[in-house]
Amino acid sequence: MVCLYCRVLAEFEPLPVHLMEEPLLFSMEDLQKVKKGQLVAQARAVLNYAMKHVESCELCMGRGFICEFCRIKDVIFPFQRDICKQCAVCRACFHIECFLEKRCPKCTRIQSRTKGQMNS
């Protein structure tokens, strides 16, 4: 039996390796595939498979975030750029509409712990 992690990684094999390591580095062949719509189709298929995996995998779901502002129980991930905003300092994730740049709850906790340790 093949583990789910290996199956997900196997889905990435059709994509050029250099795109996994340097996503903004395109070869001439990549650009030709983009023009023909082939690379986008490949990438979209891999993305859809990976998203379905993340949504159904307990380990992957455990790596997600729950918005500390609204506390809605849906798990969000940094790659969900359409609904998620990441704190530039601590990298915690929040819903875009909930996020207040200067009031990140995780940063606030870290700062208060640091102040508490300094005062001890």
Automatic annotation (TrEMBL):
Coiled coil: none annotated. InterPro entries: Autophagy_HostDef_Reg (IPR052428), RH_dom (IPR025258). It comes from the Eukaryota. SMART domains: DUF4206. It holds the Pfam family RH_dom. Residues 2-114 form the Rubicon Homology domain. This is Rubicon Homology domain-containing protein. It comes from Ameca splendens.
